[in-house]
Amino acid sequence: MADEAKAKGNAAFSAGRYEEAARHFTDAIALAPGNHVLYSNRSAALASVHRYSEALADAEKTVELKPDWAKGYSRLGAAHLGLGDAASAVAAYEKGLALDPTNEGLKAGLADAKKAAAAPPRRPPPSGVDGIGQMFQGPELWTKIASDPTTRAYLEQPDFMQMLRDVQRNPSSLNMYLSDPRMMQVLGLMLNIKIQRPEASESSQPSSSPPSQPQEQPEAKAREVEPEPEPEPMEVTDEEKERKERKSSAQKEKEAGNAAYKKKDFETAIQHYTKAMELDDEDISYLTNRAAVYIEMGKYDECIKDCDKAVERGRELRADFKMISRALTRKGTALAKLAKTSKDYDIAIETFQKALTEHRNPDTLKKLNEAERAKKELEQQEYYDPKLADEEREKGNQLFKEQKYPDAVKHYTEAIRRNPKDPKVYSNRAACYTKLGAMPEGLKDAEKCIELDPTFSKGYTRKGAIQFFMKEYDKAMETYQAGLKHDPNNPELLDGVKRCIEQINKANRGDLTQEEIQERQNKAMQDPEIQNILTDPIMRQVLVDLQENPRASQEHLKNPGVMQKIQKLRVTGLLVVMASVLQLHGQTYVSIC
């Protein structure tokens, strides 16, 4: 939720809606009060609307939470500069550059601060009309006007609202509107003084005061309420200075470890990461980096220990969820590497799932899927037992003979689990499915049987029988013929071919009833192969020629591919072949309607 509020704040800031951005960052801070980036972002938003005092407070909080973060000093310098404290701004920018000497933003800020420090001092804003106009910039303006019964009605007057906006945009324009009694009334309200209106002074005093008198009073009062200068930043203690130095040294060790890791110099990388951890125990990235090295070295137990430490320490430090997720992901990787049985993967899978609850990372999700897949494969290997598979198959065969087909399916299924490479079991289960009328399941088993052993005749007879039962006679014919290539004298295959020819000839003779023709046509229109034939432009022309131009059809009929497709259409009942076969120039052609 904090990340969501932060994202909304960033979007508003990018669009120039700084007040809205500040509100979103405030919401995010309420959810994650220890996140230094949120205070930094809100400081930038407040500074953009010239609320420098509040921006300074947020910048100081940023530096307090993350003293080794250069950007915090950039925010601090900007706030000091906005408040006119150039010297403090210079000091802040210089501290930031000490941490990040190449930061262009800090360099530019330091140049601006030094330029402002060298410029001649300006007259303090509260000593003139411009300074008084600055009082109209704060958010308390609208609250005071709305809560005072003498000024509340002004908020409903468009011309007065326009005057206020003009003063907010350009404080020096206040002088143009001081002649308006409403503006004087609001000015007195902001200064906490009572300013008499011209009509009141005329009734109580014999002579009117000079026009400039009302302006002198607010100027004087403004000098009285001039804010005190911001306190000078506290000196850095020796302990804090030493802490920063340790963090800086730890970062250098980490960079050296990263360089060694890229060179696959793992022992050196381990030494650097270990040294970084000794210097700074508030950054768990040193632990997760060392864990990654241990994975590369095959030291999975050491990796798991580092990841557990990283998670525990990260919880104590309220580290970023992404860092916790990274530690858990690396632990899961090490556990998966150590897995020897399917049950060993359970803890690895659980660890990956925990990592995803911290941060949904695509790499973690991929590793989770791989672990689940490996677990399933191991389960199949562990369950493999050809002897038990044969026993289950025999039980299924006995139940099949007793016509207890559902029970037989259960035993065949168990046999397949015990030995998924046995084509006989798939063939037997296909026969069971056929008896139960579950044709799609039976066809799938028959095809698996042929896939496992293309020379096994039973696979072809099972498949052909199912296709014949489904009245796909052309497909059944192809299946039986494919089986005969491996076993030319198989009686079941030969009988299957004979039965298919009878059904196909029945269609050729026009012996089908109207119901049979309609049934075949409906079934054919759902067949993708038939749909492709009917939508093929060449075949459409062939069909037209066969019906309207018998002479041209002779060339088409010489093409075996065309004849095969015509035969498919004929079998389905989409074409009815006339009984007469005409002779033309010694050539035979078929007239089709």
TrEMBL record:
Region named Disordered? 198-260
Q: Where in the cell is it found?
A: Cytoplasm; Nucleus
Biased composition, class Acidic residues, residue ranges: 227-239
Q: Which UniProt keywords apply?
A: Acetylation, Chaperone, Cytoplasm, Nucleus, Phosphoprotein, Repeat, Stress response, TPR repeat
GO MF annotation list: Hsp90 protein binding
User: Which residues does the UniProt record annotate as the domain STI1?
Assistant: 148-187, 527-566
Q: What is its main location?
A: cytoplasm
Q: Where is the composition biased (Basic and acidic residues)?
A: 240-260
Q: Which GO terms describe its cellular component?
A: cytoplasm; nucleus
Q: Spans of TPR repeats, please give.
A: 2-35, 70-103, 250-283, 389-422, 423-456, 457-490
Q: Give the protein's recorded name.
A: STI1 domain-containing protein
Organism (species): Oryza nivara
